[in-house]
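Question: Hello, beginner here. Any chance you could explain the protein record under this note? Any guidance would be welcome.
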Amino acid sequence: MLRVESDPVETITTMSQKPNIAFVTGGYSGEAEISYKSAATIEKNLDTEKYNVYKIDITPQGWFYTDKHKEKIAVKRDDFSLVFDGNKIKFDAVLIGIHGTPGEDGKLQGYFDMVGLPYTSCDAATSALTMNKRYTVAVAAFSGINVATSMHLFKDNPVSPEDVLAKLSLPVFVKPNSGGSSIGMSKVTKPGQLGEALEKAFKEDSQVLVEEFIEGREFTIGVFRSKGEITVLPMTEVRSKKEFFDFEAKYHGMSEETTPALVDEAIAEKVRAAARKVYEVFNCRGVVRIDFIYNEAKGQPFMLEINTVPGQSEASIIPQQVKAMGWKLGDFYSALVEDALGRR
């Protein structure tokens, strides 16, 4: 049941009490399923002794808070507030837990900037840029960060598989340019597979990235900022039990993840330095997860992509890395929230 109330006489703010934190989940894409899995972990570990937490479900049908009576209360979008029981709840900061649009591509960030609310993720410009895989690797390459050779394809300007293979060498990865969770992604090892892989990716996005395969070990590493300092989490080595690290490998136990990675310190330091540089070059905020392939022949890490709202589910890598660092998840989420509150 949806309840909409008129403006109250009394307004509750948090100047003298615990900060009110809006925790947003859901989303408009197929990644909403992953957002809800992340939400379960975040909710369980957010420190309600420090914060008044209100979970807001953002869906194509509306933006809602569900109260203790299981009634849905619509968010007032003019200032992102809630009105119920005769009171108006205004928020001090937003914890963004939405994978995909509109929480990972800059749309919500731009809205929160307009209403003057700080939030835990990268800003609107960085979020929009990193959601576009092709533009991300272009900026990274311009900044001296190693990336794979790739092509950017558009649905309304078709390029034949033959033209792609004339410029790129097999094997290649075909990815929806703005998707996440490896949905719609394929590894192509034979020329005859490319057409089907492109069709699969274009079902998810109007733009597709095709990039050459880089031989090496796959590492993923979380980076976050707290109290003005950039912290690099212990990195994870990922070995997929499938041909590559796809949706099933990520979320259905078809991968082997070692945290912290068992790797020579010289290699680990190169990956950490690259991750820190990526975080700084892209002006990141909050926690991001950066994926790399370490090519042993060249002795260098190659950046694959940046996840500005990385998964927080029980199967996700960031919680593993936080625990490997010796932190409790509650302390980690508090650090992210405090960093956002510091931008009020």
Remarks:
- The two ends are 34 Å apart (CA to CA).
- The chain has ten helices and 19 strands.
